[in-house]
Amino acid sequence: MQSILKIVLQRLGLGIVTLFVVSIVIFVAVNSLPGDFAQAILGQGATPESIATIRRDLGLDQPLILRYFIWLKGMLTFDLGTSFAQLNFANFGGAGTTTVAEQIAPRLSNTMFLASVTACIAVPLAVTLGVLAALYRNTAFDKAANMFTLSSISSPEFFMAYVLILFFAVLNPIFPSLSNIYDGMPFSERLEKSMLPALTLTLVVTAHMMRMTRAAIISLLASPYIEMARLKGLSPMRVIIVHALPNALAPIINVIALNLAYLITGVVVVEVVFVYPGIGQLFVDSVKIRDIPVVQACCLIFAAAYILLNLTADILSIISNPRLRHPK
Amino acid sequence: MSDLLTVKDLWIEGRSDEMWNPIINGCSLNLKKGEVLGMIGESGAGKSTIGLACMGYTRDGVRISKGSVVFDGIDLVTASARVKRDFLGKRIAYVAQSAAASFNPAHKIIDQHTEAPVQHGVSGRGESVEDGIELYRKLRLPNPEEIGFRFPHQVSGGQLQRAMTAMAMSCRPDLIIFDEPTTALDVTTQIEVLASIRQIVEEYNTAAIYITHDLAVVAQMADRIKVLLKGDEVEESDTRTMLSDPQKEYTKSLWAVRAFQRPVKPLATEGSVPVVSVRNITAAYGTTDVLHEVSFDVHAGRTVAVVGESGSGKSTVARCITGLLLPRAGEVAFDGKVLPANYKKRSKAQLRQAQMIYQMADTALNPRKTIGQIIGRPVQFYMGLKGVEKRERVNELLDQIELEPSQYFNRLPSELSGGQKQRVGIARALAAEPKFIICDEVTSALDQLVAEGILRLLADLQDTLGLSYMFITHDLATVKSIADEVVVMKDGKVVEQGPKTSMFTPPHHAYTDLLLSSVPEMDPDWLTNLLQERGVDNIGDAAVNKM
User: Which domains does chain A have, with CATH numbers?
Assistant: First the structure.
């Protein structure tokens, strides 16, 4: 167990270093976007003076490196900064301020909710389908499962979304086509409203996980211990579930982690179609108006999600290996 | 008494290149209850295929095209998968060659042991666990109460092989197929496994098919022996007759393999400078020392055999000599001059002088390069030859290893047999025109006849080119046939060294004695006598093991 702890700490350290590097990349990339917030908000009526005033108020006239360290310091103290769009500019007489954290928090929790619902459907479905496809490999079932999942992953997300809306909201009104959830909504209603986007996302992520499960199991079927299991007279189902699956976990876990990360970071299109108030929409809106603090914070959250999920996958793969769990 | 298993005119085909090719051409055998049939042949003879077919099982891409396998009145060839599953594990069990690969790494040994009895409804889990512990005790495994609750990787190879025999016994089957169960083990471990298998098979009156390529082993185990060659039956008779009076030429040639013996050379002259001198080498992997003050010399034109079991540090010595592993202390001298420890700091001329031939010719040759390219590479790298000159030199080398250049120059390694690949490995070493070659278990992956050919070739090359060899092996028969000097290693130390003649005449160091006496002999009573001599009762389970 000592060695596992050591590996985990090493990975965690590497993850933090990666996050630091990513923060530099994000900062440089976001700040080299053409145009800035002052121009975006003033639009046609911008005068050089007003632009300069806003830039000065926001600290945009400071050198890049200085701004990076101010931002980094904020991040390290969990102060994500203040959203430009909500700032109380003396010149504009706006009222109230919102911090980036306040803006992001509800959106992030909505996204996590949708991702969790999707994962609860997609992961068991994909693994079961993968196991069955491996068991009945090269049969009609295997081919049908492959064809169905592959065609759903190959179609654009919005298309799958509209097809689902057509069948489950318009022709058979089972689920609502709009997922406008809000704070304080009861769980069951939330679940019902999120069902169509969750199903759309399930169709998108299942193929990858299912095919990896199938491939990982089939690649083990030629091993001597599988032959041994067969020669013990075990049923084909038991051979696959008890003898092949535990040894195929590492690659499967990794693919699941990748897909979960996608569910958190890459679902803008689905959110737009269903008007789901997730973090993806907030992100795109903020890019549009060059609301740099929000964009940066979102990017960093996305990066952290990727790193954290991959880290978890690594650790789970290590734990799934009995050689590491039970050293000599 | 009626036969337990009757195989009649069995034909088996394998699929390759989109065609079904014959693997077994009409094999027949029968087995009575409690009888042990030895099946012997070189690799590719179809022994394992027949063994598996006796269970009604074929590997992917293999099919039974004709014939019947009748076990207890039921033809396993035509039986449905469900019917066969009822027999497998319960009435017919299998013991595989590599226990390390055939135990599932994800489950504890005892869980795998109880699986067949529980799934077949023979006994409950608790009962089966107790029976497993009892079997482990009978097979003289250390800590029988506790060993089953470990994972396979936590148990040594020889112990795993015995645990697998116990697992095969878990349902008390009528028939067990042993597929080369001791081939991957050291000689001293092999004895323990052989004794265990024989004891348990006798005790429960289990019939067995014992597959091996080792004649001396089969002589200990079988009541009858069947000889196979490339899917054809050569002959079959009871063990003693087969050993004393083989009928067919092929069988006789198998029996004669161990006859190869090099003439004894005079001792190296006093005071001559050895080609390679290993001086007090201590080396470690990480923080664990694996070599302790190892010293020996290799003189010009002579062969030093380094003998020992797996893990004794033989190959580590080779890694230190070639500079792949930096020793913690000690040095290697070539012609009296000390070499830099790291191969990166050695000159091309120094590197050229010492070459290596590897155990697995399969993995030591780049599968995407032709034979000409493989041998041509060192010719160009060390000797600087190009174009026609290079081609001529490669042809010369191919001639030396007795492969026709025009036929083999453009072939890929995959188009060669195991023995031919090993010859290419030899040619590649020769291409550098070295004085000294390290042969790391070069014959252990080969069949006996092929191995003998390689040994003869190495001996001829030594005579014509004046080469010195360091011959790493665990096989004492090989040592007997080719060595001039012997170095015996155990746990990273040299326990004994000297000229071959004195090594093979008593008195020995206790460990050398154990090694020597563990090499199976053709005498069918050898194992019985040896076990008595060592004070291990073959049937009883009280006796303690010697190591």
Answer: 106-288 (1.10.3720.10)
